[in-house]
Amino acid sequence: MILSPEKSTDTPVPDGHVRLTIDGQVVDAPKGELLIRTCERIGIVIPRFCDHPLLDPAGACRQCLVEVEMGGRPMPKPQASCTMTVADGMVVKTQNTSERADKAQQGVMELLLINHPLDCPICDKGGECPLQNQAMAHGRADSRFVERKRTFPKPLPISSQVLLDRERCVLCQRCTRFSEEIAGDPFIDLLERGANQQIGIAEDQPFQSYFSGNTIQICPVGALTSAAYRFRSRPFDLRSTPGTCEHCSSGCDMRTDSRRGTVLRRLAGNDPEVNEEWLCDKGRFAFRYLGSAGRITRPLVRRADGELAETSWTEALQIAAEGLTAARDGAGIGVLTGGRLTVEDAYAYAKFARLAARTNDIDFRSRPHSDEELEFLAAHVVGTAPDGVPGEAAVTFEKIENAPAVLTVGTDPEEESGIVFLRLRKAWRKKGLRHFQVAPFTSTGAEKTGATVLHAVPGAEAAVVAEPGADVTAALEQPGAVILVGDRAAESPGLYSAVSALAARTGASIGWLPRRAGDRGALEAGAVPTLLPGGRPVTDAAARAELERLWGSGPLPAEPGRDGDAILAAAAAGELAALVVGGVDPQDMADPQAAITALREVGFLVSLEMHTSAVTELADVVLPVAPDAQRSGTYVNWEGRHRPFGVALDATGVLPDCRVLDTLGVEMDTDLFTQTPAAAAGELARLGTRRAGTLAPAVAAGEAKRPGYGQAVLATSRQLVDDASLSIDEPALAGTARRPYVKLNAATAERLGLIEGEDAAVRTDRGTITLPVALADAPDGVVWLPTCSPGSHVRPTLGAGHGDLVGVVPATGNGSAS
């Protein structure tokens, strides 16, 4: 609030505020606010390098000096406005009204430039560099220093994807503070002292963080650069497009920068409600799949010789329509979709299934899943949104940050939803959040959020959630408490039911945290066997009648359809004549071998895909679809918040799934009216939400299996940087992946004859995975493996999953089990 001088003494100071004068303006500011923030609010820009609104104050660069008076007495020296808080009666003069402050800022700039190299013509930061800009605005025209500038060998690799030019660094400490405060990865720090002080890493502790790319973006001088982007372009050569990250369900705001039809980099957008100003490294760097050698750009059909051959869209759609029409009139069609779909594309698949295929056999859950999960989603998730009415208001990032307690179940946020992890860490550091995590062992993410781990044997997590202890129950009974449950809960019978019961008992809010970007939108769009678009139950006659009227269709199928596993089983048994598959990796299914068999045995297979895959190798017709950079659409993030994005690259010759399905539907004499994402989104919005109002699931808690001699119970989950299909052609990102280990406790290792650091072989009748042993605080008889990391593809190799029994033995030097 700014007050005119003549009214300043007459207007009372609001509670919790102080009154001060800045450059002659009388201002009311909240107690404890930093002076530099108060200046920002009234439109006064003070130059700075170390200051960042999301980092703790440091006062490292001294560029933000201002003149301050207290009680009518000026302070003897200019003060750093980024560390000083406002006070009642304070009088502040910035560089705009004080020659002393202006001279001090110019002097600091001169000192900062003593050793700074003249790299502007080649520096990646040139054209968007705060140092460059502020040297012009607040620096002197010439320097009094003529000595030789200090030099270092360059660049110094901080990691495989972050490079350091030490002579450019002004020691603002933004990077070190981000690493320690925000990410909790203090691998980069200030080394040496005095004139030799510099940024660096310890020799035995490399900079290995899932969030390291943020240090590149917030570096104000181009000292930290991206190995993948370095020397590739200048900012004024780039075409920038706002976008939404496609890699997890957080729906992060970001910016895509391209040049000559190629994406060169991604930067975090500024969205305080979602990702603030941060991105995980996967979202920032994993985009080269757009131009990978496996991209499919032309339709393919299988010829008489059994080989796939390129053809025209007209022929491909005609062949697909003929095959699907025959299958629909015979044993029927099943529809399987993956996690890459926008809500518009998911709606097109849901509508295609009901109208063109005339079936409810559709499921987006191309991963282990259960009927209990569908009941849970219908009761607690579908139709909720951040702006919902009481009872339908979703858990949000803001609610996590302000929650007194959070229980996470079936998810490790750092590995599966990085921005949720950053909010949990922020809430723990700033507001004393009590974080409880149901898990087999204490992960690094749990340590960095101060979590109390409720150790659970795989398959028996429901019993832990049902009786979490008096301390946990009391914490969750506090107003604003939250339970976050991930999609891995589907692998543990009764776990979703236990979460529902615990929430009902304590009053805690439930948030569903799926791993994939398109899962929440697919649920809302009706890409499940039990729900129509908008959360309408397929068994509700009134809901079906409503859709029949809005769609102008005949009677919709009234019986719940098969889930993903049942669809594949029916296809393998000949009970379904065709499958339409969009963006599914069989390796992610509960039984990849059974999934591949079903795809091979089904009579007719149509694949809508971006890249060659196990599905396209078996398909009769392959219809290429556009990646995110070449389509527009909307993701619905885990909160239920809509996250739209536009076309970043030329989209000539590529089509989104909704357009392909619309044209395919026309060939089958069915109009979907999803020719464009905008048309699909508009129709879905007109349908609105009609919550099912179903009862919460009540499935009995599962029991842990008992390992025999030489056996252990398998726990498995994914790491953020792993062998994901959208992370291909990213060697720099892959270089920061956490090394896969076999993790178990010391007593179990001793019983099985394993030694820390040496290889162990985890095996079943199907295969063996051999990895080094690392000790963890897991329960006795439990062994953990990463699900999809180099050398550890659990389901395809072992044919086993979370909670199954596996054999564990020491491995010989050549990697085979002894």
TrEMBL record:
NDH-1 shuttles electrons from NADH, via FMN and iron-sulfur (Fe-S) centers, to quinones in the respiratory chain. Couples the redox reaction to proton translocation (for every two electrons transferred, four hydrogen ions are translocated across the cytoplasmic membrane), and thus conserves the redox energy in a proton gradient. It is an enzyme of class 7 (translocase). The keyword Membrane does not apply. Binds 1 [2Fe-2S] cluster per subunit. PROSITE patterns: 2FE2S_FER_2 (PS51085), 4FE4S_HC3 (PS51839), 4FE4S_MOW_BIS_MGD (PS51669), COMPLEX1_75K_1 (PS00641), COMPLEX1_75K_2 (PS00642), COMPLEX1_75K_3 (PS00643). Residues 16-98 form the 2Fe-2S ferredoxin-type domain. It comes from the Bacteria. SUPFAM superfamilies: 2Fe-2S ferredoxin-like, 4Fe-4S ferredoxins, ADC-like, Formate dehydrogenase/DMSO reductase, domains 1-3. It comes from Pseudonocardia kongjuensis. Keywords: 2Fe-2S, 4Fe-4S, Iron, Iron-sulfur, Metal-binding, NAD, Quinone, Translocase. This is NADH-quinone oxidoreductase. Its cofactor is [2Fe-2S] cluster; [4Fe-4S] cluster. Transmembrane segments: none annotated. It catalyses: a quinone + NADH + 5 H(+)(in) = a quinol + NAD(+) + 4 H(+)(out). Belongs to the complex I 75 kDa subunit family.
